[in-house]
Write a structure and sequence with these properties.
Number of strands: 9
Distance between the termini: 56 Å
Radius of gyration: 20 Å
Largest sheet: 5 strands, antiparallel
Structural class: alpha+beta
CATH class of the largest domain: Alpha Beta
CATH superfamily of the largest domain: Aminoglycoside phosphotransferase (APH), C-terminal lobe
Shape: globular
Number of helices: 10
CATH architecture of the largest domain: Alpha-Beta Complex
CATH topology of the largest domain: Aminoglycoside 3'-phosphotransferase, Chain: A, domain 2
Strand order of the largest sheet: 1-2-3-5-4
Mean pLDDT: 93
């Protein structure tokens, strides 16, 4: 059948070969022409929607160009979803994995399309005013995170996706190393911030599945009921470790009114959405966990997000990517380090 939109990234992807693989591998794919839509690629893996009539699948592949070693591990993400979707219904079901070089020169996988709404820049008009929808969305992200943390990962045979012993220590030192390797500009106070992180690592009280990028625009919400989460996306960094790192990341991404530019889309700074403090307290209530060390985890969340943007800026500055979105990240990076410093000084929460 004819492929609609065959020129989307056609210099990187052979859509005709991909269609043949899909029809040979996945049963009962409708005999309709395939329509290709590229989602917003963010700063991570590239994602495409392939529609065969009413049947849809999502393609995930690494970014174009040179990427850091061990980053964007598509095979690992696929392997995690194979087991996880059976015990956590919000995780998409994977359909196939391939590293066929004649299709796109990189490995990739296909998964089910979770039907619903992903919020990036704006709240859908159908949801109504943010004063009404904000509390529902705020609660929904906490509910879906706690449900993930309640999964018995040993029974689900997911022990091999991470090493819980020493997880937090490894994380702190690893992210500091990442920043050192990608550093381009001197940032005032960074050494003091990193020393504080090393010296204040909390004792991990329990281990759970950690998503490692849990945030609003990785959730698929019901198109009519914003308090209902239909799916959780982007599992490339999932592991086993300290569950508090995920709530720390949620709060780092959770913008409030008056925040500086942190380089990501923010809608939670509108009336009705919980504050970071309210989110933390609601998490404590729903999960039953002690959040007395929450400032450490949020500080670390801001630091990690700054390092992610720094790595992207480093790639752009070195000419490893021509994506000019990365050229303007120096101010957001500096702001994120500033937010981390404020958090460690008890001035955010």
């Amino acid at each position: 059948m004819e492929i609609v939109n065959p020129f989307i990234d056609h210099e990187h992807i052979n859509w005709e070969r991909l269609e043949v693989l899909i029809r040979e591998t996945i049963p009962n794919v409708p005999d309709d022409e395939v329509r290709i839509t590229k989602f917003s690629e963010g700063y991570s893996n590239h994602t495409y929607l392939l529609s065969f009539g009413t049947w849809e699948t999502v393609l995930r592949r690494p970014p174009f160009g040179e990427i850091p070693a061990k980053a964007h591990d598509i095979k690992r993400e696929y392997s995690i979803l194979l087991k996880l979707h059976e015990v956590y219904s919000l995780a998409p079901k994977p359909y196939l994995y391939s590293n066929e070089p004649m299709i796109m020169g990189r490995d990739f996988y296909l998964m089910e399309k979770k039907q619903g709404v992903v919020i990036n820049n704006v709240i859908p008009e159908a949801y109504g005013p943010t004063e009404q929808v904000g509390p529902a969305i705020s609660k929904s992200i906490i509910k879906s995170l706690v449900e993930l943390q309640q999964v018995e990962y040993k029974n689900a045979k997911l022990m091999d996706i991470g090493r819980p012993e020493g997880y937090l220590e490894r994380q702190v030192h690893s992210w500091i190393k990442r920043y050192t390797l990608a550093k381009t500009n001197d940032v005032s106070g960074i050494e003091k911030l990193e020393a504080w992180l090393i010296q204040n690592i909390p004792v991990t009280l329990e281990t759970t599945i950690v998503h490692n990028d849990f945030k609003l625009n990785n959730l698929v919400l019901d198109p009519y009921e914003p308090g209902v989460v239909k799916g959780v996306l982007d599992w490339e960094m999932a592991t086993i470790g300290d569950p508090m790192t995920d709530i720390g990341a949620v709060l780092a991404y959770w913008g409030e009114e008056g925040d500086p530019d942190i380089g990501i889309s923010v809608v939670t700074n509108q009336p009705g959405f919980f504050t970071r403090r309210e989110m933390a307290e609601h998490y404590a209530q729903v999960s039953g966990r002690d959040i007395s060390n929450i400032n450490f985890y949020v500080t670390f969340g801001f630091y990690k997000l700054a390092v992610i943007l720094q790595q992207l800026y480093f790639r752009w500055k070195n000419g490893d990517t021509d994506d000019n979105r990365f050229a303007n990240l120096t101010l957001p990076i500096s702001n994120l380090f500033y937010m981390a410093s404020l958090t460690k000084g008890n001035q955010i929460l």
